[in-house]
Amino acid sequence: xxxxxxxxxxxxxxxxxxxxxxxxxxxxxxxxxxxxxxxxxxxxxxxxxxxxxxxxxxxxxxxxxxxxxxxxxxxxxxxxxxxxxxxxxxxxxxxxxxxxxxxxxxxxxxxxxxxxxxxxxxxxxxxxxxxxxxxxxxxxxxxxxxxxxxxxxxxxxxxxxxxxxxxxxxxxxxxxxxxxxxxxxxxxxxxxxxxxxxxxxxxxxxxxxxxxxxxxxxxxxxxxxxxxxxxxxxxxxxxxxxxxxxxxxxxxxxxxxxxxxxxxxxxxxxxxxxxxxxxxxxxxxxxxxxxxxxxxxxxxxxxxxxxxxxxxxxxxxxxxxxxxxxxxxxxxxxxxxxxxxxxxxxxxxxxxxxxxxx
Length: 358
Description:
Strand content: 5-15%
Number of strands: 8
Mean pLDDT: 89
Distance between the termini: 63 Å
Pfam family, one: Lipase_GDSL
Strand order of the largest sheet: 1-2-3-4
Radius of gyration: 21 Å
Structural class: alpha/beta
GO molecular function, one term: peptidase activity
Family: Belongs to the 'GDSL' lipolytic enzyme family.
Protein name: ATP-dependent Clp protease proteolytic subunit 5
Shape: globular
Signal peptide: 1-21
Number of helices: 12
Largest sheet: 4 strands, parallel
C-alpha cells in the first residue's frame, strides 16, 4: 500500500515538474490570441530561405548550427536558433519558424507562420541585388502568394482571421547601411531607406497585417567584421557606421509614430535593437559574456571574414557575437525576452478591426 502511495506521489510530482519546465520554456503561451508569426528581413531572421536560392549568401557552412538540434547547419547564420525561432517558441506556437521557400512545408506549418527573410537583403531592392537574394519588396510578393495558399487551406474567412490576428515582425536595414554603395555616396540615403520601410509597412497593412513589430538596426559599427577591419589596433567600434544606424533608427521611429496615427486600427511598434546590443557590448559581464570584439566563428588570427570561418570556438557562451555580423543564440534569447517583456502586452491587448477581404 505504501509502495503504491509512493508511486502515485512520485508520478504526480514528476508531472508537475515536467509541466513547470514546459511552462518556463514557453512562458507566454498566447497562441489562442496570436495564431501565427510572419517574419520579414535579413540574415538575423532567415532560417533557411537562401538555401533554395541561387546565391552565395548561404548560412549552411558546417560551423553554423553548432548548438542547433542535431548540431547541423540549416541555413541559419548562428550557432543555434534565431530570433524568429525563439519568438514562436516563447509564444508557445511551435518549436521553429520554417523558411517559406522550403518545399517540404505542410499545411500545418503554413497556418502557424513562416519567415520570408533572406540573408543579404535590405529594404532597398538594389542592396545586394547581384547576390540574387530576396529584397523586402520581393518578400512582400511571396507573402501575397502565401495568402493565396492559406485561403486554399482554410478558406477565405479563416485566412482573414489568421492574418489579422497574427504577429508580423520586420527586421532589416543592416545591409542597406553597410553594403549598399548608395549609403556612402548619397547623403540622403537614410531618408530613402526610411521611405522604403514606410511603403513596405503600408503595403503589409493593406494585405491584412494589424500587429506589426519593426526592429531598428543594431550598432553596425560594433560588429566584429568592422571592428577588425576598420577599428584600428584597439578594434574600436566604427563611429561613422554607428551614426548612420542611429540616424536610421531615429527616423524610422518617427515614421512609425506617424503611421500609427495615420492608420490607428493597426498596432505598429518600433523595437529598439540598437541600445540592447550596445549594452551587451559595453557591459558584457552583466550578461555573462567575456568577448565582444571578435566572433566565436572567426577566420585566421581572430579576424572575421564575413560570416565564414574554418573552425568555431568551443566556449561560444562567452561571446556576444557568433561571427562577424551575428549574435549567438544566447544573445538572441536575451533580445527576444526583452522584446516580449516590453511589447507583448501591447500586442495581445490590441483587438484587430474586422476586415472584409484580403
